Amino acid sequence: MNSTIQLQVNGKKHTLAVDPATPLLYVLRDQLALNGPKYGCGLQQCGACMVLLNGKAEPSCLVPVAAVKDKDIITLEGLVRPDNTLHPVQEAFVEEQAAQCGYCMNGMVISAVALLNEKSQPSDAEIRAGLQRALCRCGTQSRIIKAVKKAAAKQQGK
User: Fold this and answer.
1) Which partner from 43, 111, 114, 142 sits 20 to 30 angstroms from 93, CA to CA?
2) Closest-CA residue to 13 (of 34, 38, 32, 33)
3) What does the alpha-carbon distance between residue 85 and residue 59 come to, in Å, rounded to a whole number?
4) The overall pTM is greater than 0.90
5) Are 81 and 87 in contact (CB under 8 A)?
6) Tens-place pLDDT, residues 109-144
7) How many CB atoms lie within 10 A of CB 83?
8) Is there a contact between 51 and 65 (Cβ–Cβ < 8 Å)?
């Protein structure tokens, strides 16, 4: 049975009629037409569906929409700045050619943003730990780590 739920997504309030048990991912993709978060494994294990919930990287494929109604939700699309320039993490991923097949990109970028929100200059080990929930199948991990380091430097003005 549908209920009216308000969500704060990418800085905008949305009022939606939705079953409160519907996974957040389905609401983002099907009702709000946001395609950054992807359906991957459906078990919160691959990271394809990752979003920022109050600044923390969290999978959205199994989280009921009712559980996030009071949280600030940011998707990959919401990282783009108001002047339509990319977030420093997105810029660095492009510059380092960190994407190959694209399966992990949403999860990697969202996880990297969350990591850099907590630690401005993470070590390689901290980067690996921060990105471990996003599964990369094609092997671009070394370029992804370089991209995160470059984004950290960009954010520090270096």
Assistant:
1) 43
2) 32
3) 25
4) yes
5) yes
6) 999 999 999 999 999 999 999 999 999 988 899 999
7) 5
8) no
Distance CA 113, CA 143 (A): 16
Running DSSP on this structure, what letter comes out for residue 9? Answer: E
Please spell the DSSP secondary structure of 47-110, one letter per residue: -TT-EEETTEEE--SSSBGGGGTTSEEE-GGGGS-TTSPPPHHHHHHHHTT--SS-TTHHHHHH
Going by their DSSP bridges, the two strands 72-74 and 3-9 should be labelled as: parallel
CA 4 vs. chain centroid, Å, equals 25
CA–CA distance, 59 with 123 (Å, rounded to integer): 24
Cα–Cα distance measured from residue 46 to residue 70, given in angstroms and rounded to the nearest whole number: 25
List the beta bridge partners of residue 62. none
DSSP summary character for residue 1: -
Query: Which one-letter amino acid corresponds to residue 39?
Result: Y
Count the helix, strand and coil residues of the chain and give each as a percent rounded to the nearest 5. Answer: 40, 15, 45
